[in-house]
Amino acid sequence: xxxxxxxxxxxxxxxxxxxxxxxxxxxxxxxxxxxxxxxxxxxxxxxxxxxxxxxxxxxxxxxxxxxxxxxxxxxxxxxxxxxxxxxxxxxxxxxxxxxxxxxxxxxx
Amino acid sequence: xxxxxxxxxxxxxxxxxxxxxxxxxxxxxxxxxxxxxxxxxxxxxxxxxxxxxxxxxxxxxxxxxxxxxxxxxxxxxxxxxxxxxxxxxxxxxxxxxxxxxxxxxxxxxxxxx
Lengths: 108, 113
Description:
The complex is a heterodimer.
Chain A: E1 4-7, E2 10-14, E3 19-25, E4 32-38, E5 45-51, E6 56-59, E7 62-67, E8 72-77, E9 86-92, E10 97-98, E11 102-107
Parallel strand pairs in A: 2-11
Antiparallel strand pairs in A: 1-3, 3-8, 4-5, 4-9, 6-7, 7-8, 9-10, 9-11
Chain B: E1 4-7, E2 10-13, E3 19-25, E4 31-37, E5 43-50, E6 53-57, E7 64-70, E8 73-78, E9 87-94, E10 103-104, E11 108-112
Parallel strand pairs in B: 2-11
Antiparallel strand pairs in B: 1-3, 3-8, 4-5, 4-9, 5-6, 7-8, 9-10, 9-11
């Protein structure tokens, strides 16, 4: 079955700087890679996703890159803001297996 | 008009009791899921139903029994509750299996004392 590794588990960045979270997956058949943001006490919510037929996708300050050969994908957040502080989860299909999460702290 | 709604929001009960959590989605999705989020925030899939049929059962104890009366509802019944069952349980739905975003409910915080 699929196994998803996510790093780092905790990340602190200065407001305005960029943050990068990385994930690797094991099943080469996986073709869908979503990222979810979970604020404290709230439910996880999709922020961006990418399918295996593209290498990069961008939505304003958020981008995701995918390297199918190396089986890894990354989340990039630029110009970080206080409201970006949350736990971020990567996931891979099938069965939507989640990484263990990255707690992102934006420092003022 | 919440898309995925689950009840109750909080559930406090004693060891050995039986409890149920209900989930309903009004998105017209075919697939529904139960996830368990423990104190370390790990999200683990428990079950998935596609059009009322069980398609994923991830090594969950037999004390947990999902029931899907129709594709808009997926309930979770837990027998003989144990301390280790304390967690936040999230219901979710997606349009299709594997390849579409999950829409989560607000979670049910279960505390077993």
